Amino acid sequence: LKCSSRPHIDFHVLAPTVPWGLHKFAKMASSRLGPLLGRAFGGRRAARSYTPMIKFRAGGSAAARSPEQLLGELRGVLSKGEGTAGVQQLSNEWFALADKDRSKSIGSDEFRGLMDTVGLSLQDTESQALFDYFDPAKKGEISYSDFTKTLRGEMPQFAASLAFMDQYTGHYPSAMSSLRKIMPRFDAEETEEWLESLDAVLKHHGPTRARFLLHELTDEAVRAGVPISSSISTPMCNTIPTNVEPNYPGDLAMENRISNLVRWNAAVMVSDGNKRAAGVGGHIGTFASICDIWEVGMNHFFRGKGYGGGMGDQLYIQGHAAPGPYARAYLEGRLPLEKIMNFRQEVGGNGLSSYPHPRLMPDFWENPTVSMGLGPLQSVCQARFFRYLHLRGLADTSASRVWCFIGDGEMDEPETIYAIARAGYERLNNLIMIVNCNYQRLDGPVRGNSKVIQEFEGVFRGAGYDCIKLIWGDAWNELVDNDHDGKLIEVLERCPDGDCQRYAAKQDGALIRAEIFEANGLADRVAHLSDAELLSAFMLPGGHDHQKIYAALAQAEQNAETGGRPTVILAKTLKGFSLATFQGRNTVHQQKSLKVDEMLSFRDVLNIPLTDEQIKNPQGGEFFRNPGLDSPEVQYMIEKRQKLGGFLPLRTPAKVSGLIDLPTPDNYTMFDAGNPKAMSTTMAFATLLRKLMKFGDFGKRCVPMVTDEARTFGMNSFFHEFKIHAPFGQHYTPVDHDSLMKYAEAPSGQILQEGISEAGALCTWIATGTSYASQGCPMMPFFIYYSMFGFQRVGDIIWQGADARARGFLLGATAGRTTLNGEGLQHQDGHSLLIGLSNPAVIGWDPSFAFEVAHIIEHGIEEMWGKDKDLIYYISVYNENHSMPAIPAEPYWKEHMLKGLYRLSPAKEGMAHTVRLVGSGSIMQQVLAAAEMLEEYGVATEIWSATNYGELHREAVRAERQARLRPLEAKPSCHVQDCLGDFDGVTVIASDNIIAYPQLIEKYIGGEKVILGTDGFGRSDTREALRRFFEVDKESVTVAALSALSRQGKIPADVAMGAMEKYGLSMDRPDITMDHELLD
Q: How open is the CA angle 90-94-96, to the nearest 5 degrees?
């Protein structure tokens, strides 16, 4: 029952006598249907009076069980212990019997005795069959490793739950083919009796009762290992029956007072902020709906950084509920009143951020959860990465869980739906999601015409979650418990959420009585309740009942320890709970302030000890209520948090510079001498990364990440050497198993193969890049992907990563609108670097040569880990092969290269004219070729490599600001101006990016400027054809220089025109993507 998602069933006596007696039924129920039916007769509350007419035929001598059946029973025996106690008992007995120190192997006789010891009785034939099952090689002995491998699958233990992870195999697939192979010959009479029993239930009690029973039988069968699909939705009642709820471990009265204080301060914080600084916004209703779950979690479940077995839990909080954690931290003494009174007023440095933003509050928040959908996906990837760290032996995360609060409106986000599916197939038992089902989104109901809880249950159960429904509070649940014929459940399931919202907003007990009960012939069910009592019962759903919240969270926590899959709690709440004037109304989300009469009413409902005068005429924030650190309430809060390992939210990043030895400089010089053999900058990156992954402890902390494109990027050689991370091992023989670079997976694998999901990969990248803070375990992510599918596709998540203060590398591979030649419009990227510039934490690079790639990565590692800077290095790498030159002879080339611009080669002397050519990325090859062509026209060229237009621009803007605000000082210069500003000649810039990117530095360049880029939609063709179309080929660079010289009067215009004719350049450039006349 404790690991189930099943409803409670009451059993009632149909007649004074039954054919086989009540006692016999209870006994058989316990043995045949599992603990549930047996417990129905001995729970905390007396069972009511119905016994389903299910008959059990007395069998004869028991047939021998198959090895598969015995394996299921053995798992059941071992899982009866608390946590891993059953496994521990078996292992102790095993080693006591083992006769070999190294192999720990036992023979068939010892195996039979061991099974008897742990409680699995076997016939002689069964014992031998089960032994042979564990000994497929017929060695005559079983090692402990063989035994555990067969029992749980090939997988290192991550938490207690992984001991029997294979009891669930992901989704619930059809198992009919396997059933047909092992299906025994059933006794026809017994089958008929079961069917008759179902008919009797239908006849006497209707389809609702039959539905309950069938749900119970199906779920019990799934838990017992029967390969049958479980239903994806259950009746609309609490999953955990009242009679098995655990005793509440805290002081309920005290915790209710604390909840009221937190809820009050959170609401007043938003209201006060908007009265003193109109328009700053905020949200009152969201936290009011989730406050009680938050508080029960903070007092009893959420583990702080000092808990042990990791660095506590990770919390992903609904962004709109941010005032709640602030209000609690204010009571705990962690946030002063001054900050509370500066909610959403941060510029002065003494305010609070609107939502969870670690970039703005680096000692408080850990996980950004706005915008919608990103929190759920990030939480899943965080839970997965915690397991990755544990299985690789880098950090003990066995006691770290991830709790994710999700709004029911947020469930519409595609990232949320993908997150749910991913956690299911990854079997992330360390993940607990809590869906705040207050039925409302920003404008109105989430599903006005249906039932979100029932819908969401289908989504989560279908994805393989343990689903806990927390719907009814104690008073209303009494009505559900007494629903002897299931008619009330039918009515509640038919009642659309839009009507439920209306009942909450109207707050009229007579309306509820009339529409739910009297209109459906159920008036007698509530005849004992007054309208006020009925309203009170309705207005306290399960998500506001501390006892039932505790039961749900306790079950979820137990699932995390002993279950094999993620858990979700679907909690029914009221948006704006206890705010009588607007709770449940469509406008509640936009409610930003409270009128005086609303505050007085709110105070009375919550029993806040403030006078009318303190509310009407507050002095220095008197309407905030803090009883003080010495008060019983605050002492209670602090004591509870100390037991759980400390305060939350809290961010405690490790100082990486003092922990990790970085690779020595010689690791980055492999390309300094150049190489005439053609290679791409993508391959240069892969070669360097492989070397870094072998550098001691740092190498173990490098995390290569791909989205199913490793072969495209030349990284397939990594598979065999470093292996792909697979938490459950590799249980198949790959098609290339006999090749040197075979596809190899392992629990300790270092490579993260993310599948075809840039969104999921980026969230995993964030989890990796923030591990220095979340677990005090620095990890360096290198995520390489098709550049077009980065900033353009998931720029929001990269922004989230910057907010989270993630550190790591993003490699935009196959970059360049003309370099990725065959893929066409949707793949060819020429703007990621410009988009990346909009993110202040992103340093975007466009290297041309292998040595540039190596030293940029060296610089990034030093900045992020050597100097503890929270930066993201984005590097464009290309798939065009060409020879790689040696580092230039120019002094300070490296220093200048890391500033974004350096001179690759000086101009030859003795020529009539000199131009400057600036190149980057793969178009540098066109620039170098153009330099040779210009010599034919007597024009010398000075070649410059621009590795980072964005940083050149940022430095120049800073210099301009300093000049503007310090007019008495000399005007500061900037690197781009120092390099290119004192020139009255021609400068031609060519790039495989759109013109707007290099144009960022145009104003700082002296003389005549010409900028060539790849503006427009991409298309498929050869590189030569594409570069001619976009006018970034060597001929276009040459003509651009000659044309600019002619405009300066340094050469005749005929020279430029002759070059255009010679190279076939023309003003006409038909473009079907934009020239509409071409479509006629």
A: 120
What are 766-777's pLDDT values in tens digits? Answer: 999 999 999 999
What span, in angstroms and rounded, lies between the C-alpha atoms of 611 and 621?
13
Phi, psi of 675 (to 5 degrees): -160, 115
CA dist 853 and 669 (Å) reads 11
Long-range contacts of 996-999 (CB under 8 A, 24+ apart): 996/834, 997/831, 997/833, 997/834, 997/837, 997/949, 997/950, 998/918, 998/920, 998/946, 998/949
Biggest distance spanned by C-alpha atoms of the chain = 118
Angle at 84 between CA 79 and CA 87, to 5 degrees: 70
657-670 confidence digits (pLDDT tens): 999 999 999 999 99
The shares of helix, strand and coil residues in the chain, as percent rounded to the nearest 5, are 45, 10, 45
CA gap 305, 325 in Å, rounded: 16
Query: Which stretch of 32-46, 357-371, 418-432 has the lowest confidence by average pLDDT?
Result: 32-46
The tokens describing 521, both together, are 């012939």
- Number of other CB atoms surrounding residue 895 within 10 Å: 10
pTM: 0.82
The strand ranges marked E within 886-1007 are 901-905, 913-919, 939-946, 986-990
Neighbours of 39 (CB within 10 A): 18
Instruction: Report d(CA 107, CA 119) in Å as an integer.
Output: 18
- What whole-number distance in Å separates Cα of residue 918 and Cα of residue 896? 14
Contact 801, 765 (CB under 8 A): yes
378-411 tens-digit pLDDT: 999 999 999 999 999 999 999 999 999 999 999 9
Number of helices (H), then strands (E), belonging to the chain: the values are 40, 20
Q: How many CB atoms lie within 10 A of CB 211?
A: 19
3-class secondary structure for 670-698? CCCCCEEEEECHHHHHHHHHHHHCCCHHH
Rounded CA separation 550/399 (Å)? 19
DSSP assignment of 33-92: S-HHHHHTTTSSS---SB------PPP-SPPPPPHHHHHHHHHHHHTTSSTTHHHHHHHH
Distance in angstroms (rounded) separating the CA atoms of residues 1028 and 355: 49
428 phi/psi in degrees, rounded to 5:
-85, 85
Contact 752, 388 (CB under 8 A): yes
Integer Cα distance of 146 and 137 in angstroms: 11
Q: Which of 495, 312, 503, 517 is nearest to 398 (CA)?
A: 312
Structure tokens at 898: 């890391």
d(CA 759, CA 481): 44
Q: How far apart are CA 371 and CA 796, in angstroms?
A: 8
pLDDT, position 116: 85
State the Cα–Cα distance between residues 877 and 786, nearest whole angstrom: 10
Q: Is the peptide bond before 414 cis (omega within 30 degrees of 0)?
A: no
Angle between helix 924-935 and 1034-1047 (nearest 10):
60
Cα 8 versus chain centre, distance: 33
CA separation for the pair 494, 515 (Å, rounded): 12
| Cβ atoms < 10 Å from Cβ of 218 | 17
Strands (E), 500-544: none
Q: Is the pLDDT of residue 49 over 60?
A: no
What is the DSSP annotation of 233-251? ---SS-SS-GGGPPPP-S-
Cα separation, 605 vs 544, in Å, equals: 14
| Cα atoms found within 13 Å of the Cα of residue 544, Cβ hemisphere only | 22
Walk across the sheet containing 431-437 and list its strands. Answer: 314-316, 402-407, 431-437, 567-572, 466-470
For residues 141 and 105, the answer to whether their CB atoms sit within 8 Å is yes
